[in-house]
Amino acid sequence: MKSRVLAYLSYVDELLKKDDVDWEKEAKKHLVQIGFFAHERLIHLIVTALFAMATIICILYLNATGSMVILALVVALFVLLIPYVMHYYLLENSVQRMYKQYDEMLSRFDDAFKM
Fold it and tell me: What are the tens digits of pLDDT across the range 38-57?
């Protein structure tokens, strides 16, 4: 997913450098992609929040019992939680950037329409 997001952002950045583009068509296509990536962002937010809650619950249980099995579970959850947070961070920032790209497309469409 990371490579797809970055490739799409790069594609749109290159598109925004051009002048001879059907901005209305491209803006509509961009909205569809924003919807896909925003949905992916929501799913990763839910998964990340659940992993964080599971980690906190296991840490509290570890404090109460001192079980080595729970310690191993806490370590495993942290190993999974860190990449989930990093991936969610990428998705969040990418979708925010797509919103800015969309605004730029709309301004170009408005400018082309005024001429």
Answer: 999 999 999 999 999 999 99
Alpha-carbon gap, residue 94 to 5, rounded angstroms: 7
Tell me the C-alpha distance between 41 and 84, whole Å: 11
For residue 9, give the H/E element and its range: helix 2-16
Give the number of C-alpha atoms closer than 13 A to the C-alpha of residue 88, restricted to the C-beta side.
16
CA distance 12 to 94: 12
How far out from the chain centre does Cα 96 lie?
Answer: 9
Sort 37 into a burial class: Cβ within 10 Å, 0-12 / 13-18 / 19+. buried
Contacts of 15 (CB under 8 A, 6+ apart): 21, 26
**What does the block give as tokens for 112?**
């082309």
Residue range 2-38, pLDDT digits in tens: 899 999 999 999 999 988 888 889 999 999 999 999 9
